[in-house]
Every structure is written in C-alpha cells, then in structure tokens.
C-alpha cells in the first residue's frame, strides 16, 4: 500500500474540498501560483457515477501537477462504494476521501455527508466496502467485473491519467465534523472512537457541528480532543484540522497549538491563489490571474455554462477602489473574451 499521507512533510497544509469551488480550473490556478501539500477534488456523488451519469466525471478531471490528488466522494450505499473503487483507482488518484461532513439537506436526505456521524454502523460499512473494492482491484479484478455501467468503464479505460504498471492499493481518508449537536464534547469523542475503527489513513476534522452549518466559530479545542483519542488508538493516522483559517501562518500555528499533523484551508483560498505561499499581491496581479482562470475554465469545461465562473471572478475583485463596480460588470459576462475586455479596461487605470 502506497500511503502518501505518511510521506508528506509536516505540518501538512492542504486545500479543503469545496463543492462548486475547487473544480479542475480552480485547482490548476492554485497549483500554478502556490501549490498546497495535498489537494482534493470537488465531492462527487457515488450513486450518480454508479448510475452512469457520465457528466459527473467532470468533477474528477485533474492535472499531473496536482499530485498528491485525492478524489472526494459522497453517498450512503455501501455496494456503490465497492463499485466505484476500481474506477477511481483506474483514474490514477493518489487517495480517496469520503465526505462525512457536508450539511447540505439534499445529501443528508440520502443518508450521506454529515448524517453518517449519527450512523456510525453505516459509515463503517461504507469504508469497508470502498477498501474491499480497492483491494480486489489491486489483486487483479477487472473494472468490467465490478458492476459499473459500460460508459463509466469506458471512460476509465480511455483516461490518459490511468495508472500504468503494477497495481497498488491507495489510502482511504475521511473529512468530517466534530458532531451533530452543538457543544456536545461527548458526541465528538464517541465519533472519534468510531473513526479509529475504520482503518483510515487520514482524518480531516472541520470544527463545526452539523447543526452549526457554516455559522458560528470553528471549535478547535474539540478538534484537539478528538485528535487525542485518535492518536491514542492509532498513531499512524494523520489528522488535519479545518475551519476559519485565514492564512498560511495561522494554519501552521493551529496545527502546532492543537497537536495536529496539519490543516486544510477553505474559504480563504477563494480569489487568492497565492495563499499557500503567503505572498501579498496587488489588485493588478489578481485581476490578471482572473482572466487566466476564466480561460482555463472555458478550455476545461466545454459544456458547462460560463455563469458558474462568475463567482470566482467576483472573489478576485476585492481590495481596490471601484471593486464593486467591476464585480457588477463581471456578473453579466458570458465568456472569457468578455471577461478580458472588462478587466483590461480596469487594469490600465490601476
């Protein structure tokens, strides 16, 4: 088993997976200007892939410069986690991460995301099936024999990122929250014990509960308490904290203060590809990269509407005079060419 988590230099500072944000174009920009230690894809629905939804494979596009790259997935059907394992292995991912922390109501209704915190039995079954699928693939079982739809099998077989040579198992990790109910330390401790029984390579803990959603303040003290329990049971598991980190310095300080192996940076990355270097940038630099980002988006996602790119452009427009007016203009554009036209008019005035 090639467990890359154990090879990363500590503190490990990674980019947190964010649905609708950390897509292939965004990650390409991040890696070009300040690459983090580890990167996750957007989370992808296991059930959708196993049902043959070819469009969902867009969430798994990545470049070689992103390694180590971890595919993040979500769902609640253990059998489908077994089926998807060879698909992700064939695509050449360095690891697979199961989302057990998303508070989205639609995902919760399916039994996935943070709802698994309240259903540790199912959570363990999901992990067991995923790991068994990885193991069976590594031992030589063909992807065609896992019960995946033909179009998904063909996508994996045609992928240019497919692994060559000897097959190896890849590590499984989990990203989760400190619990379901607010301020329940015992619940957090109980969940930590369950996590240690899953044979995970890494556990990333967001310092909010399910009920908090994204409100309030992340509780790093509870993350630290969970980390103590995990370390006592299995010292080989790496543990990352997540929540409210504003810069690379704070990420390193929190990892040290709370006894963690590292931290994941989330929302602070938006519109700031330089965050992992700690570099301060000018408005002109940010806007220039915004144009580059828009071009990457169009090049990679030929079928996606450009409207999905607009929020990224808005994040680049901060910290300079007239930023709100520029944002308003960018919220109306429909392609990278229009983006460049709007921004170039601004740049010459800066």
From TrEMBL:
One of its GO terms (molecular function) is tRNA dihydrouridine synthase activity. Pfam families: Dus (PF01207). The active site is at residue 102. InterPro entries: Aldolase_TIM, DUS-like_FMN-bd, DUS_fam, tRNA-dHydroUridine_Synthase_C, tRNA_hU_synthase_CS. Its cofactor is FMN. Residues 15-132, 170-342 form the DUS-like FMN-binding domain. It comes from the Bacteria. FMN binds at residues 72, 175, 206, 266-267. It catalyses: a 5,6-dihydrouridine in tRNA + NADP(+) = a uridine in tRNA + NADPH + H(+); a 5,6-dihydrouridine in tRNA + NAD(+) = a uridine in tRNA + NADH + H(+). This is tRNA-dihydrouridine synthase.
């Amino acid at each position: 088993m090639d467990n890359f988590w154990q090879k990363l230099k500590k503190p490990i500072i990674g980019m947190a997976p964010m649905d609708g944000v950390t897509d292939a174009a965004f990650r390409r920009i991040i890696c070009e200007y300040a690459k983090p230690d580890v990167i996750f894809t957007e989370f992808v629905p296991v059930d959708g892939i196993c049902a043959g939804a070819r469009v969902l494979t867009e969430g798994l596009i990545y470049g070689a410069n992103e390694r180590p790259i971890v595919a993040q997935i979500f769902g609640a059907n253990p059998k489908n986690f077994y089926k998807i394992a060879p698909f992700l292995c064939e695509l050449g991912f360095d690891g697979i991460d199961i989302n057990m922390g998303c508070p989205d109501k639609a995902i919760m209704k399916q039994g996935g995301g943070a709802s698994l915190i309240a259903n540790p039995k199912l959570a363990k079954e999901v992990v067991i099936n995923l790991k068994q699928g990885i193991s069976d693939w590594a031992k030589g079982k063909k992807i065609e024999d896992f019960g995946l739809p033909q179009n998904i099998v063909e996508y994996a077989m045609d992928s240019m990122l497919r692994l060559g040579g000897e097959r190896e198992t890849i590590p499984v990790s989990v990203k989760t929250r400190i619990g379901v109910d607010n301020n329940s330390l015992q619940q957090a401790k109980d969940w930590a014990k369950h996590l240690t029984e899953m044979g995970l390579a890494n556990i990333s803990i967001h310092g909010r509960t399910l009920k908090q959603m994204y409100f309030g303040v992340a509780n790093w003290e509870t993350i630290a308490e969970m980390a103590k329990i995990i370390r006592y049971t299995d010292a080989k598991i790496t543990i990352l904290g997540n929540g409210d980190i504003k810069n690379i310095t704070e990420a390193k300080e929190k990892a040290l203060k709370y006894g963690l192996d590292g931290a994941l940076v989330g929302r602070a990355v938006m519109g700031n590809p330089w965050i992992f270097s700690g570099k301060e940038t000018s408005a002109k630099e940010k806007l220039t990269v915004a144009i580059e980002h828009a071009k990457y988006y169009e090049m990679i996602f030929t079928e996606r509407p450009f409207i999905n790119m607009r929020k990224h452009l808005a994040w680049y427009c901060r910290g300079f005079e007239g930023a709100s007016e520029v944002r308003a203009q960018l919220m109306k554009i429909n392609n990278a060419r229009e983006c460049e036209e709007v921004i170039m008019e601004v740049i010459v005035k800066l």
